[in-house]
What does this fold into?
Amino acid sequence: MVSPPRASRVALAVAVSIVLVGCAAGDPRFTAEAPAGFWVGLWHGAISFVTLVVGLFQEGVEVYERNNAGGWYDFGFLMGATSVWGGGSSAGYHRSRRGKRSPRSDA
It folds into this structure.
């Protein structure tokens, strides 16, 4: 199968980034009376890296929603960030498995 040209891959990446940032933290629909909850925190955690990169170059894009429901938003954010970007627990497992010798008798 032939891979698409580089320009179309870049355009696709830009389009996906724009769609993801459309749901980024700092949305004016969340107020102190109607704060962001668990599910919004989960989504913001999942897109946190993309939001961070865009927030460096665009004013008004934040990684974390200021008007949130407290602990439930935080828990959702943490779950979203660790589930998408990895919690690091498997890294230690793979590292320890690499150092072990296989039970073959190739002496």
Q: What stands out?
A: The radius of gyration is 20 Å. The mean pLDDT is 77.
